[in-house]
Amino acid sequence: MAGGNNKELPGAAGDLAQKHPAIWEAYAALGEATADAGGLTARERRLVKLALAIGASSEGAVHSHSRRGLSEGIAAVDLHQVALLAIGPLGLPRAVAAGTWISDVTEEK
């Protein structure tokens, strides 16, 4: 994510990366370091990040992690299962909202 990928970032993240590349580089390096800090697979890390985005009620992050999950070969049904798993700890309304945010991406034309 470091370096030249700044132009590919959507919205506010892309704006920050363009205006403050050193901050974005540090942020990207932190992401790489946390990914390398344990034994989770890339797939597991993506699903965990999706779950955290759901827990934070961050529609943009849910979109981002869903989009990235699809591009990494994670099936849409698996992304949706993460939203279903949120029913117990987060409640039905938040889980349903997350499911619609995931659908925004999985049902794009």
UniProtKB/TrEMBL annotation:
InterPro entries: AhpD-like (IPR029032), CMD-like (IPR003779)
Keywords, in A-Z order: Oxidoreductase, Peroxidase
Superkingdom field: Bacteria
Residue span, Carboxymuconolactone decarboxylase-like domain: 22-98
SUPFAM superfamilies referenced in this protein's UniProt entry, alphabetically: AhpD-like
GO terms for MF: peroxiredoxin activity
Pfam family, one: CMD
Name recorded for this polypeptide: Alkylhydroperoxidase/carboxymuconolactone decarboxylase family protein YurZ
Organism: Sagittula marina
Taxon lineage: Bacteria, Pseudomonadati, Pseudomonadota, Alphaproteobacteria, Rhodobacterales
